[in-house]
């Protein structure tokens, strides 16, 4: 490569929209005495172990169906799945958000001034931004790096923490939406120069993306599309009365992070063992009371979020159909659409895709197919020829 080519390449890279360096990109340093921080996934990627065959879910009270050897469930670092892991303090919101980011790459032959797109991913209740780790890598692959991916941990989830003297207990839809908008406003302060956003939300996160879409647009940001993963208002609200009993089947905690990963895999909560080994460590913390039976407990006990369930899903269908962007609904299996969505689908107001052989965590179970659908959606709607109507346009 000539000196002129090198200079041109360095100039292009310097202009790419990296996040503020509040925290360093992924590195190889680990504090072996801090087990939880070692599980924070900012570490070197260990050699992958084959995930082994599926087995029956362990009976309650049993520690493992494989005995003491849980090596095949050892955590895997997210290094290599995102370019950056940073912390962003939102003083006005009283939280310090952990975010994961792979910025869009401007391909050869295009100018740095051409618009770029970032998929902004909001996870579901109880999970974290790392549930999108494998998906993010696939998006970069399918888009040739042209589409960036930003995922983060919502308040009271993952590695996002309240600032000193602040509380992060409130998970009402309005609070989560304000956090979401504050994060994007902090990272992309100038709406006119910001990338176009493609909002992608799983379950609870889908409700946040749908509510945030018009607010972002009113603030001058460009939203090219809104994608909701495996949540339908009618089904979600109907399921709420039995949610508490369903949560009773979840263990209160685990003796190790490996055991927690094992439970998610053997119970088929997550069907992709590799993805579970990346995402699950972030949703557990050490027990504060030092209970010997359960030294690792849920970061966000779902039962404690019950007061907010209705706020997440009520009016979701009407808000989704009202989004002034292309719209996409991705479901795991053939879920029953509520009346409003059924009418909207017949009128061609949104695109719907069904991924077979996956569970609720469809973006973890089959990250490749999910990414393929989202990248196709992006190409069709974000880069459409001027004058051609977009899917979901009014």
TrEMBL record:
<feature type="active site">
    <location>
        <position position="360"/>
    </location>
</feature>
<keyword id="KW-0378">Hydrolase</keyword>
<feature type="active site">
    <location>
        <position position="203"/>
    </location>
</feature>
<feature type="active site">
    <location>
        <position position="230"/>
    </location>
</feature>
<comment type="function">
    <text>Demethylates proteins that have been reversibly carboxymethylated.</text>
</comment>
<protein>
    <recommendedName>
        <fullName>Protein phosphatase methylesterase 1</fullName>
        <ecNumber>3.1.1.-</ecNumber>
    </recommendedName>
</protein>
<dbReference type="InterPro" id="IPR029058">
    <property type="entry name" value="AB_hydrolase_fold"/>
</dbReference>
<dbReference type="GO" id="GO:0051723">
    <property type="term" value="F:protein methylesterase activity"/>
</dbReference>
<keyword id="KW-0719">Serine esterase</keyword>
<feature type="domain" description="AB hydrolase-1">
    <location>
        <begin position="120"/>
        <end position="372"/>
    </location>
</feature>
<dbReference type="InterPro" id="IPR000073">
    <property type="entry name" value="AB_hydrolase_1"/>
</dbReference>
<comment type="similarity">
    <text>Belongs to the AB hydrolase superfamily.</text>
</comment>
<dbReference type="InterPro" id="IPR016812">
    <property type="entry name" value="PPase_methylesterase_euk"/>
</dbReference>
<dbReference type="Pfam" id="PF12697">
    <property type="entry name" value="Abhydrolase_6"/>
</dbReference>
